[in-house]
Structure formats: structure tokens, C-alpha cells
UniProtKB/TrEMBL annotation:
It comes from the Eukaryota. This is Integrase catalytic domain-containing protein. Gene3D superfamilies: Ribonuclease H-like superfamily/Ribonuclease H. It comes from Mikania micrantha (bitter vine). GO terms for molecular function: nucleic acid binding. Residues 1-83 form the Integrase catalytic domain. InterPro entries: DNA/RNA_pol_sf, Integrase_cat-core, RNaseH-like_sf, RNaseH_sf, RVT_2, SH3_retrovirus.
Length: 816
């Protein structure tokens, strides 16, 4: 820490021993925390072992309450420059029912389990629930709150033993004699001001040193409170914090238990037997860590950077190697979140204004006209999509609300005809960036304002009035005159218009990738790569680049985002060695949605020698959850080829996933937890075209299988040679094709092994033709040095790391 202070220009001053008066500001804040925590505990009548959760919740609430010291603003608003959201705040210590996900396919299993609300978790969008029956703290999104009932309030206050000795089950509690005795229900509701999803403040888990630790028999150990199960981690946060699937069970059945007297006697008599058992944590919970209330061990020195999470993300990701401006940009895209629903956005002033601006822009553009719906015609619906746009320095440029038509309700032949429109291949993106970096070109990024609205619409389409702008007495609908985001034909219409605009100023469309345009005039070379409404412009002449920007702005209205930093969810960082492509934020978002930010990391994405079957007798799991996870991991291969094989194998089971498949996918996430900042270095010998594909035919020998793979690779090599030729990168000789199978190389070089290969398709023999034409040169490589093995098998530790280094994979965010 001393080195950190010195680097940051911080002077560290310490107080004398036993002189708290020298640190009055901190001591006063400790008092504030303890007073709030005591109020929470006494109101809910929680046992003292939950003092840690009371402190955390008090900190969470104080950071979101106005203070006169800072001009009646909240600490949250000062830190994040936005008002906190109060919609999801609930009464601490009240009775809740959270969704039971451990049904194991039993449709008659209870849908909700009772528990006690004990706070707000860090890094997860949900609520912390203490399940007394199962003796664990879980995190769940789908929770129904009974804010007038406090399960611990039934314990008699004059019986100190009952107050500090928490029963094993909720059955040991009496029903509250007066359910309306809580003064909480008389308090006013907080102001309903809505902002983007609230962020967690740092250091909220710090305990006050003046808090006396509870006795040893009052601590909550890992044996008494298990970590939350993976199925109970929230993936999506709804502001009302409830789940409509929960049935209304009635207050009389919420406790649903036997009389208190019998329950207390049973618990008291069975306590010695239960305490004498050898307790161990369930194996399925070994990967999950929960924040537990614990006492401070005064026998050992404490540090300020201690965390209640055993494996915090700070141990695996660092920002020390980046410039201050780049740090600001990364922190900005991390700290701001966009709402997902209209009901969330409409409560925030920024998003309300953004929706008004979008409607105004659409009307000024003549996108529609309000008309009565003709007989025999049908309408399509629309929805709002929200996005925060950033400046190059990380500051928020504007809040963008985009109106998107629900094109999936269109009917082919009536509402649309042709739909195809090319987008930039990731191979082309990596290749262009590698060439631009090698040649020290300028690389800039543009964003076209309302790109799809520039396309002309030929079909007759009617759309309902957008949500939030309809009137009850107005039955008119929107007759679309121009393309709108979400329509089947919108991307095609926009692409045609953008192509014509670039051709008018001398750009030529490449044949290898129709989304890539090149301008050449002597030594001047400028390229434009389009992916829907995002454009990358790279070239060696700043004047031509600026002229192209000005022309596109006059034609379509664009935003100049400056130097390329963030494209399609890929973070681009320029170093002395070249460009590094990472998906750090994308990985952190996946871990956050899956509730695995505190999981134990793994050194490898898949265990070597692991065999997965489709039907192994294990129970089925939620298919939609598994498919969504695999789909997100598939896109991650754009910058992290080290997970390609594992994701490829897991994608075989999306139609019928089992628990073992989800466990294996969880291991991939645990590996990503250890390497969130890992990416590909460009330029490098390789790393631009990365892919593997399962062969659709059965090969009779390994030589035949390798030869078929060579044929597929030759196709990619030829395409790459032609693309590089269009980018004015000349090929002076044949492209080496490394193969570790001697027989396959012989077949490619000579017409040998006729008896063993006469059944192979004729198109495979074009490999030999390309070898004879000096375009391809098969070369030998040792099996342990074959980089392609990363995509075809699970490797051991040494070979795995060695091949990643050869491929150009590095981790800029690795802690030093």
C-alpha cells in the first residue's frame, strides 16, 4: 500500500495509539453507521450474529440518503453523477418468499420458500435472503415481500437466550401477535426518482472497529450458512422485486408451521444431537462464496483491502498499465447501465428526454404519417431500446433511446421480400486492424445517426403508436414511409444507400467482403468497414479521412467518435507492440448476470479428457438459460480463442442440456473470472482467422481426416490471400500450411495412397492443385507445437499456455 500511495501522490498519516480523538471524522461516521445498524437490528429483532448484515445494509442506505454536508445530495449522486434508485428498497428483516429453483422437475414442488430479507448483495442484481430452514443465505431476484411481518419479532424480548440463539427452522417461531406493530409501515415512501441501475459503492463491507465482536457461539460460520446455489443467482433485476408466478398463499399459511411451543421444545431437545454432527459444505456449493457476518480476530493484524469474498475480482484484473484517459473510459462504460424496459426508463429524466428527442427526429425525418388503419390491414408493434453513448475520454455524450419495430411479426411476401444485407466479418475486422497497425495507419470510428431511417420503404406497413406517446381517444396508427430499426428489410435498404454514397466519392467495394470499401489514389489509401451503423475508417492520409467524414456527415449525419476504442463489444487498446483486442466488460457482464463474480477461479476452461454425453441420466435444466449462456460465450471467441473448444463442445447440447453440461459451462465462467482482461495482440503471426468445425462425414483413417481439414483450411487461405491482395498486401510466395500428419502431407503433394483415398470427394483434391500452382506449401510441424490443437482438444497446462503464447494471446489487465 505504501508503494501505491507514493505512486498516486498520497501522503499517509497515522494516529497515535489509543487516541481516537485524532481521527474524529472517521469515528463520527462509525457512530453514524452503528446507530443506523442498531435501528435496523432492533426493528427486525435480528440475532446479534447478523450484525454484519446490519452494518452492510446501513452503509448501503446511508450512501443513498441526502446529506446536508454535501448540499442535500446523496453520496451515490456525488460519485456517479446520477440520482439513486429507491424502487427496489425493502423493509429490512421482513418475511419474504423467494423462488424455489431446486424443483428437479417436480411440478408439484412448492414454488416459493420462506426466508428473511437481510440486505442487498454486491455484484448481483437481487436480494439477500436468509433461509432458516436450510440454514443458508441465498441471493434471488424473484422475491415476494411481506413487509408487515417480521419472523424474529415472535421471540420474547425478555428472554435473552432466545434473542441470541436463533432456532434452526422458522417452525420454532410464534406467529406475530400484532402484525401492524412495526413503525416501518408508517414511514413515507422514498421519492420515486428512477435512474439507470444503481451501482454498488466501494468499501461497504468495512466493519467499525468500535463494534465489539460477538462471542464464538454466536458467529455464523461456513458450516451454518451455505453459499447461494447457482440456480438461485439472479440473472436479471426487475425493479418491483417480485415474481408474478408466485401464488398468493395467504398470511395464515406463510408461516405454515406447527405451534410455537412444540417447535421450541423440539428444537431445544434436538440441539445437542445436531451440534454433535460433523458438518461439511455441500459439493455443489464449493464454487460459490457468500458474504457472511463474522467477528474480527484481534489476534492478527487486519488490512484495509480485506474482502468478505475469498476470490475478489481485484485479484485477477488490474488497470495500472493504462493511461488515465483510458482508465476513465473503461470505468465509465462499467459504471453506467442502460434500462431494459420502458417502465424503468420513464422514471428517469434523461431517458424521458431521450425518447422525446427520438420521436421528434422520426417525425422531422418523415418516417411515418398518422392515419386510420384500413380494413384488412394489420399492424406491428414496437419497443424502446436504450443505449448510453460515450465520448473518447469516457464522459457520457448523450442518452440514446431508439424506437425498434417488432419485425418478427412481419409476414413474408406481404410486409417484406428481400432481407439479406452483409455485415463485416470478424475475420475482416481483425485483418484490417492488423494491417492498419502494421502500417501505422490512423484508425477512427464513426456512428451514423438513425442509420436505418435513411432507407426507403417500398412495402405498405402500419405500426402502432410508440409506447408512452399514445392517446386513449386517438385510434390512428403510424403508416411507415421509411425504414425503421427492427424491420426485416431495414438493414438491406440502409446498406444499399450507404454503398451508393461511398461509390460516389471514389470508394470501391471489395469482392471478398462486401462490407469493406477501399479508396486508392497514388500513395493515398483509405478503407471504410461498416457493421450496420458502426463504421471504422482507417488510412494513411488524415485529409482524405476528414473529407470522408465530412461527406458522410452531410449525407447521413454522423458522430465522430475519434480514435477506435470500443467496437461491437470489443475493447481496443493501443500498445507499443500493437493493438490488443479484449472483451473485458463483456466478460464482467456475463459473470454479473450469472452471479459468479465471487466464484473460485479455474486455470483451464475444460478438464483434460472430459467426455460429455447427451443423455447421461441426469435431470434436465432450463434450456433457455443454457442456450442464452452458450450464445454469449460463442461471441466471446472473437478475442478469446482459449475457450473456443470448450464452447464448441458445450454447444452440442443446447437442445437437451443436463446438469453436467451446466457445470462444465460454469467452469468456463470460472476460467473467465481468472482472465477477464485476456485478448489477442495485433499484428502477430496468426490470430486473425480463428475457427474450427466438426467434420460432417466419418473418416476411415486419421490421414483422411487431416486431409479433409487441409481442404477446408486451403479454402480459407485462398480467401485471405485474395482479401489481402485487395488491401494491397502482396504475397511473394506460397502460404505455408502446417500439418502434423505425414500421410496427409504426402497425399497433398503427390497422388499416392490411391487405395486408401479413392473414396474421398473430388473437391478435396483441389489442395493438390493449389500446391502445384505455388499458392500453398504444406509443411511439417511437431504435434506439441500445433496451434490448431487449441480448437480441437482439451490440453494440459504446459501445452495450453505455450500455444496461447504462440497465438499472441496476452492479458493486459493481469495484476502485477
Amino acid at each position: 500500500m505504501l508503494e501505491f500511495y507514493a505512486n498516486q501522490g498520497i501522503v499517509l498519516e497515522t494516529t497515535c495509539p489509543h487516541t481516537p480523538q485524532q481521527n474524529g471524522v472517521v469515528e463520527r461516521k462509525h457512530r453514524h453507521l452503528l446507530e443506523t445498524a442498531r435501528a435496523l437490528r432492533f426493528e427486525a429483532n435480528l440475532p446479534i450474529k447478523f450484525w454484519g448484515e446490519c452494518i452492510l445494509t446501513a452503509t448501503y442506505l446511508i450512501n443513498r440518503l441526502p446529506s446536508e454536508v454535501i448540499g442535500n445530495k446523496t453520496p451515490f449522486e456525488i460519485l456517479y453523477n446520477q440520482k439513486p434508485n429507491y424502487d427496489f428498497l425493502k423493509v429490512f428483516g421482513c418475511l419474504v418468499y423467494y423462488r424455489n429453483t431446486d424443483t428437479k422437475g417436480d411440478k408439484f414442488e412448492v414454488r416459493g420458500r420462506p426466508g428473511v430479507f437481510v440486505g442487498y448483495p454486491r455484484g448481483t442484481k437481487g436480494y439477500k435472503i436468509y433461509d432458516a430452514k436450510h440454514g443458508k443465505i441465498v441471493v434471488s431476484r424473484d422475491v415476494k415481500f411481506i413487509e408487515k411481518i417480521f419472523p424474529f419479532a415472535s421471540v420474547k424480548e425478555n428472554n435473552e437466550e432466545e434473542i441470541f440463539k436463533f432456532p434452526k427452522n422458522l417452525e420454532d417461531f410464534d406467529e406475530p401477535s400484532n402484525q401492524n406493530s412495526s413503525p416501518m409501515e408508517e414511514t413515507n415512501e422514498p421519492t420515486q426518482e428512477k435512474s439507470p441501475t444503481a451501482q454498488e459503492e466501494g468499501n461497504e463491507d468495512e466493519r467499525s472497529p468500535s463494534q465489539s465482536p460477538p462471542s464464538s457461539n454466536q458467529n455464523v460460520s461456513n458450516e451454518d450458512v451455505d453459499g447461494p446455489d447457482n440456480e438461485e443467482q439472479s440473472q436479471q433485476f426487475e425493479q418491483n422485486g417480485t415474481n408474478e408466478n408466485f401464488e398468493d398463499m395467504g398470511i395464515d399459511n406463510m408461516v405454515g408451521l406447527e405451534s410455537a411451543g412444540a417447535g421450541s421444545n423440539n428444537a431445544e431437545s434436538s440441539a445437542p444431537t445436531r451440534e454433535s454432527r460433523n458438518k461439511s459444505q455441500p459439493k455443489h456449493l464449493m464454487d460459490f462464496i457468500v458474504q457472511l457476518p463474522r467477528s474480527v480476530d484481534h489476534a492478527r493484524p487486519t488490512t484495509n483491502n480485506e474482502s468478505s469474498t475469498v476470490h475478489p475480482l481485484a485479484n485477477f484484473i488490474s488497470y495500472e498499465k493504462f493511461s488515465n484517459s483510458h482508465k476513465a473510459y473503461m470505468m465509465a462504460i462499467d459504471s453506467n447501465h442502460e434500462p431494459k424496459y420502458f417502465a424503468q426508463a420513464v422514471k428517469n429524466e434523461h431517458w424521458r428526454q431521450a425518447m422525446k428527442d427520438e420521436i421528434q427526429a422520426l417525425e422531422e425525418n418523415g418516417t411515418w404519417s398518422l392515419e386510420e388503419l384500413p380494413k384488412g390491414k394489420r399492424t406491428i408493434d414496437s419497443k424502446w431500446v436504450y443505449k448510453i453513448k460515450y465520448k473518447p475520454n469516457g464522459e457520457i455524450e448523450r442518452y440514446k433511446a431508439r424506437l425498434v419495430a417488432k419485425g418478427y411479426t412481419q409476414m413474408e411476401g406481404i410486409d417484406y421480400h428481400e432481407t439479406f444485407a452483409p455485415v463485416a466479418k470478424l475475420v475482416t475486422v481483425r485483418t484490417l486492424l492488423a494491417i492498419a497497425t502494421k502500417r501505422s495507419w490512423l484508425i477512427h470510428q464513426l456512428d451514423v445517426n438513425n442509420a436505418f431511417l435513411h432507407g426507403d420503404l417500398d412495402e405498405e406497413i402500419y405500426m402502432k403508436v410508440p409506447e408512452g406517446f399514445s392517446k386513449e381517444d386517438d385510434t390512428r396508427v403510424c403508416k411507415l414511409k421509411k425504414s425503421l430499426y427492427g424491420l426485416k428489410q431495414a438493414s438491406r435498404n440502409w446498406y444499399k444507400k450507404f454503398t451508393l454514397a461511398l461509390i460516389e466519392i471514389g470508394f470501391k467495394q471489395t469482392q471478398m467482403d462486401h462490407s469493406l470499401f477501399i479508396y486508392k489514389d497514388g500513395d493515398v489509401c483509405v478503407t471504410a468497414l461498416i457493421y450496420v451503423d458502426d463504421v471504422i475508417i482507417a488510412g494513411n492520409n488524415i485529409e482524405k479521412i476528414q473529407k470522408t467524414k465530412n461527406y458522410l456527415h452531410a449525407k447521413f449525419s454522423i458522430k465522430d467518435l475519434g480514435v477506435l476504442k470500443y467496437f461491437l463489444g470489443i475493447e481496443v487498446t493501443r500498445t507499443r507492440k500493437g493493438l490488443v483486442l479484449t472483451q473485458r466488460k463483456y466478460i464482467l457482464d456475463i459473470l454479473d448476470d450469472c452471479g459468479l463474480q465471487g466464484c473460485r477461479p479455474s486455470n483451464f476452461p475444460m478438464e483434460q479428457g472430459l467426455k460429455l454425453d447427451k443423455d447421461n441420466g441426469e435431470p434436465k435444466i432450463d434450456e433457455s438459460q443454457y442456450r442464452r449462456l452458450i450464445g454469449r460465450l460463442l461471441y466471446l471467441q472473437a478475442t478469446q480463442p482459449d475457450v473456443a473448444y470448450a464452447v464448441n463442445i458445450l454447444s452440442h447440447f443446447v437442445s437437451d442440456p443436463r446438469q453436467v453440461h451446466m457445470d462444465t459451462a460454469t467452469r468456463v465462467l470460472r476460467y473467465l473470472k481468472a482472465t477477464p482482461g485476456q485478448g489477442i495482440l495485433l499484428p502477430y503471426d496468426g490470430g486473425t482467422n480463428l475457427r474450427s468445425k466438426k467434420q460432417s462425414v466419418v473418416s476411415r483413417s486419421s490421414a483422411e481426416a487431416e486431409y479433409r481439414a487441409m481442404a477446408t483450411t486451403v479454402s480459407e487461405i485462398l480467401w485471405m490471400r485474395w482479401l489481402l491482395n485487395e488491401l494491397d498486401v502482396k504475397q511473394n510466395g506460397p502460404t505455408p500450411l502446417f500439418c502434423d500428419n505425414q500421410a496427409a502431407r504426402h497425399i497433398a503433394n503427390n497422388p499416392v495412397f490411391h487405395e486408401r483415398t479413392k473414396h474421398v470427394e473430388m473437391d478435396c483434391y483441389f489442395v493438390r492443385e493449389r500446391v502445384e500452382s505455388q499458392e500453398i506449401q504444406p509443411m511439417n510441424i511437431h504435434t506439441k507445437l500445433q496451434i490448431a490443437d487449441l480448437f480441437t482438444k482439451a490440453l494440459g497446462a504446459q501445452q495450453f499456455r505455450s500455444l496461447l503464447d504462440k497465438l499472441g494471446v496476452l492479458n493486459l489487465h493481469a495484476p502485477t
